């Protein structure tokens, strides 16, 4: 027998799960792009510039 005064919780779990998954995937994607363009690519460019400079100095 249902207790009166307590609202039904049907459907709340599915809505919360969809919200949690959306936030997790969106946030993960945003942080991934931030790392890739803010950390990874600049370090690769610095490394490539170092080796290009090293090669140029060895060829002289």
TrEMBL record:
Record-given protein name: Cytochrome c oxidase subunit 9, mitochondrial
Family in the record: Belongs to the fungal cytochrome c oxidase subunit 7a family.
GO biological process, one term: mitochondrial electron transport, cytochrome c to oxygen
Residues spanning the membrane: 17-36
Organism: Pseudomicrostroma glucosiphilum
GO cellular component, as recorded: mitochondrial inner membrane
Subcellular locations according to the entry: Mitochondrion inner membrane
Highest taxon in the source lineage: Eukaryota
Cross-referenced PANTHER family: CYTOCHROME C OXIDASE SUBUNIT 6C, CYTOCHROME C OXIDASE SUBUNIT 7A
Keywords of this entry: Membrane, Mitochondrion, Mitochondrion inner membrane, Oxidoreductase, Transmembrane, Transmembrane helix
Record-linked InterPro entries: Cyt_c_oxidase_su7a_fun
GO molecular function, one term: cytochrome-c oxidase activity
Pathways per UniProt: Energy metabolism; oxidative phosphorylation
Membrane-protein topology: Single-pass membrane protein
Role: Component of the cytochrome c oxidase, the last enzyme in the mitochondrial electron transport chain which drives oxidative phosphorylation.
């Amino acid at each position: 027998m249902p207790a009166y005064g307590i609202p039904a919780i049907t459907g709340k779990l599915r809505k919360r799960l969809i919200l949690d998954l959306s936030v997790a995937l969106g946030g993960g994607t945003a942080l991934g792009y931030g790392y890739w363009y803010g950390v990874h690519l600049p370090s690769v460019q610095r490394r490539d510039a170092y080796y290009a400079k090293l090669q140029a100095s060895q060829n002289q």
